[in-house]
Amino acid sequence: MSRQGAPPVALRQRPSRSVPAVICAAVLLALGVVLVWVALVRLTSGSWPEPVKAPLTWLAGVSWDEPGIWVLGSVTAAVGLILLLAGIVPGRYHDLGVRLPAAQEPDSEHAVEGDAAVVMSRRAVAQLAAATCEHIDGVSSASATATDKEVRVSVNTALHDTRDLHRWVGDGVRSRLVASGLDPAPRVKVYIRSRD
C-alpha cells in the first residue's frame, strides 16, 4: 500500500471492529424485539406482560433521587460513552512502515521524489518471512505470524541437530526483512520442530 502527493494524510487503516459492532447490534436488536413484543401485548390485551410487571412496579415506586436510579443512570451513561468512544477513537496502528530510498541517494535506482509513504500489512510480513524460510536448506515447511514488533517463524525439519538451522533461519528472515525496507525491522523469533 502506498501513497504519493502533497496532503499530509497518514497512511493508516482503522481496524474494522466488526466483532464488537455485531455483538452490539445483536444486543440492541434483541432489546428492540423485546420492546416491540411488550408494546404489542400491552396494546392487544390492555395489560403489561408478567415478566415486565415487576420492573414497572419497581420503577413506579421509585423517586428520581434514589441510589438505585443513580446507579442505573450511571451505568447507562458509561455504556453509552464507551460505545461513542469506540466509534470515534481510531484503533491501534497495525501496519509496518517501509523506508523508501531518498532521491538524494545516487546509487538508488528506485528513488522516490516528493512525499511518499509505504506500509506492509502484518499478514504480508508474515508471508514474506514464511516464503524466505522455505528457500533455506533443511526446512521442510514453514509458517509465520507477525505483530507490530515481532515475527514468529515456525519451521518443520527432518534434521535432528537444529542449532545451525535455527541460526540460518533467523539470519535469513532478519536480512530479508531489513532488505525489504521495514523500518524498524521487527524482531525475529524462530521455533523449530524436528520430525522423525
From TrEMBL:
It comes from the Bacteria. It holds the Pfam family DUF6286. The keyword Transmembrane helix applies. Residues 78-193 form the DUF6286 domain. The chain crosses the membrane at residues 21-40, 68-89. Keywords: Membrane, Transmembrane, Transmembrane helix. InterPro entries: DUF6286. This is DUF6286 domain-containing protein. It comes from Arthrobacter gallicola.
